[in-house]
């Protein structure tokens, strides 16, 4: 087992990894930018190294500084967390080159899934259904327009290297296609350093259901069940997630989870990973993408399975075999997560930064809070706006909803704008309580009200 791990991240996820390592008696090294001197992950780690200026390009995305920090502190492994360098194959490769174990999947899997076009080809070969569309990068505009017309409007133009809900455009009318294609290519080039885009049929009504995968380096792959992440803003940012997915019949659930295991095997996967699916109202489903990292909403899966995903990432990276088979995994009760962020829903979810004068977070039976904030904490304007994840569990969905409502009522955050009231509206909605979820849910039931 590793002796010392560097966590190449910040915020609640850095805290999450430090906690797992501490319980495993592994020492931790935090890295931080000049804006994060007082951050919780910096306080909780055994050692800390400043890696650069507030702008993440100079710090949390600065591979050379992070790797140097790991070497001078004598680490034997690096956990990338979520976001930043977490899906950067070249970072994982550099870790290996200097003799540090990357706590994540093999470089090849990251590369394959980081290119969404290559991912589609791999899935098709593995017998995992993909959304009708192209499996090549579109270069010639006339040719692309022809293909789009053949697939049928509306279509989605997606950046091959896209992520985090960025690099995606919907085209409803044929006439708009050429211009949008050009913008999408330019945007892909500036945002991801790769102009390749491809087309998918735009599916109007569906649920976003994803499957948690855990695999070791000895060929064992299991799934830990699904999560419903349909509640997304109009910019594809997840707001609320739950496990299991409500109103999903057992046979459909089995088909989706089995496909996810096939997908992970086809990717040559090891570590924790997630396969995202589009699930239509009749429960036909398509591969959407694979995230070759931990997922923000991983705690709901941990809650219903009792399996600590971060500890298993660490164990698997150190060469251990999974200690359980698929048949030994059991799911109990229902878990829901709310992503509480410093954003203003009334101003199109504009991020809000500043000093948190007061914070009161909920607790009690069946409640887990993953957060980096505390009274007096200054939310920096440079990074993502997550303040806290509230995760609740109960024996059934109705109980979990009631518990979340109670939790949201207990929250008090003074000093920054938050989306707390917006979340309360979600849970009060009758459609949500019925489990009537699609990716249009928030636009239909909450934004308008
Ligand atoms: P999750 O499903 O775990 O919520 P998201 O796709 O929302 O994952 O992304 C998680 C985090 O990673 C966000 O902070 C997002 O901005 C960042 N992220 C994801 N993909 C990329 C990428 N290709 N480039 C830069 N940041 C990314
Ligand atoms: P990212 O890497 O940015 O997360 P995804 O491929 O997962 O990109 O797509 C982000 C979101 O866009 C999905 O969660 C889903 O809501 C929506 N989406 C993706 N593909 C389609 C599609 N073919 N039709 C309609 N919506 C889609
Ligand atoms: Mg996605």
Description of the molecule:
With 449 residues, the chain is an alpha+beta fold. The chain folds into three domains: 4-103, Rossmann fold, CATH 3.40.50.20; 132-201, Dna Ligase, domain 1 (2-Layer Sandwich); 207-445, D-amino Acid Aminotransferase, Chain A, domain 1 (2-Layer Sandwich). 34% of the residues lie in helices and 27% in strands. It contains 15 helices and 22 strands. The protein has helices at residues 11-23, 40-44, 63-72, 89-97, 107-114, 116-125, 141-151, 177-192, 250-266, 298-305, 309-317, 397-410, 420-428, 430-434, 441-447, and strands spanning 4-7, 27-33, 47-52, 77-79, 101-102, 155-163, 166-171, 197-201, 207-215, 221-232, 238-243, 271-279, 285-291, 334-341, 343-344, 350-351, 354-355, 358-360, 367-371, 378-379, 386-394, 412-414. The strands form six sheets. It has an eight-stranded antiparallel beta sheet, with helices on both faces. The longest helix is centred in the middle third of the chain and has 17 residues, at 250-266. It is globular and about 60 Å long. It starts with a strand and ends with a helix. The model has no long low-confidence stretch (mean pLDDT 97). Bound molecules: adenosine-5'-diphosphate (2 copies) and magnesium ion. Magnesium ion binds next to loops. One adenosine-5'-diphosphate is lined by residues 131, 156, 162-166, 168, 200-203, 208, 232, 236, 276, 288-289, 439. This protein is a component of the acetyl coenzyme A carboxylase complex; first, biotin carboxylase catalyzes the carboxylation of the carrier protein and then the transcarboxylase transfers the carboxyl group to form malonyl-CoA. It comes from Capsulimonas corticalis. Keywords: ATP-binding, Biotin, Fatty acid biosynthesis, Fatty acid metabolism, Ligase, Lipid biosynthesis, Lipid metabolism, Magnesium, Metal-binding, Nucleotide-binding.
